Amino acid sequence: MKKVVVVDYGMGNIDSVVRAAKECDVNVIVxxxxxxxxxxxxxxxxxxxxxxxxxxxxxxxxxxxxxxxYVLERRIPFLGICLGMQLLAETSFEEGEHEGLGWxxxxxxxxxxxxxxxxIPHMGWNEVNIIRKSRLFEGIPSGEDFYxxxxxxxxxxxxxxxxxxxxxxxxxxxxxxxxxxxxxxxxPEKSQYFGIQLLNNxxxx
Length: 205
Prior knowledge:
This protein is of the alpha/beta class. The protein contains 5 helices and 13 strands. A 9-stranded mixed beta sheet has the order 2-1-3-4-13-12-11-8-9. It starts with a strand and ends with a helix.
């Protein structure tokens, strides 16, 4: 059975991610211990909360160095979910300016309402429009709804990294990919059938 590491850096409730991953028939380990990453077939970085606190926790626990080894050097398939996707950016402007992992060129900015009725944070179901082919979305039609909870988004400087967009606040990038690195702004673990399909696709890489 494939070993999947869900990174624990003290941000948000990861129980739903673990339950969803277990539905995909894999062995899930929740950890921040670098020794537990050995033999991992996939790595998931979930998270809910503020960017700055997230990066502080990651650096304090030395997770940034562990991720660099396994994701950038060993090229283990990686998926960042919600805050986990935003942490891939170079910089965030959430409550100040903070340096991210820097794996995806771009910065995290607050969503700007495009009309008086637009609510921030963006919460609930919204469509995800696939803009280029990827195994992550295999078997998932473009325009299907996924579940979102966020007030900030990743603005990609590298347009080739954008994988999907969502029409809210004038439109934002809701999924990215670069080689073995993937990120989704939505919560696949809360997105029912197609969310599990996406997780299955990722875990099959």
